[in-house]
Amino acid sequence: MVALIQTLLLALDIYWWLIIASAIFSWLFAFNVINSRNQFVATIGDFLYRVTEPALRPIRRIMPDLGGIDISPIILLLILFFVRQLIITTIAPALI
Q1: Would you write out the chain's pLDDT as a tens digit for each of its 96 residues?
Q2: Long-range contacts for 48-55 (Cβ within 8 Å, ≥24 apart)?
Q3: Hey, how many other C-beta atoms are within 10 angstroms of the C-beta on 52?
Q4: Where are the transmembrane segments (predicted)?
Q5: Is 34 left (phi over 0), alpha (psi -120 to 50) or beta?
Q6: Helices vs. strands in the chain: H and E counts, helices first
Q7: What's the Cα-to-Cα distance from 21 to each of 39, 44, 93, rounded to whole Å?
Q8: Domain extents for the chain?
């Protein structure tokens, strides 16, 4: 059971970094720092969008319009942090 919890925590950590990478990529794309016509860059952007958008879309739907500021990745990171801490402090000690 410990292996399952550790695998779940690793998956949460990987998703955490994918959300950060997606946010950084969107900033670089918005400020035209990266070449969006490059096939490799477009593939990375598409991958990050497809991985993070299903979790970010419901948050964006609930959040009020803040103009050009998108804080949905921050909210999702806070939710992931809460779930990770819940697993570490509540579920894991009960199973060990």
Answers
A1: 889 999 999 999 999 999 999 999 999 999 999 998 999 999 999 999 999 999 999 999 999 888 888 899 999 999 999 999 999 999 878 876
A2: 48/18, 48/21, 48/22, 49/22, 51/15, 51/18, 51/22, 52/18, 52/19, 52/22, 52/76, 55/15, 55/19
A3: 22
A4: 14-34, 66-87
A5: beta
A6: 4, 0
A7: 18, 10, 32
A8: 2-95
Length of the chain: 96
Task: Quote the tokens at residue 17.
Answer: 């970094």
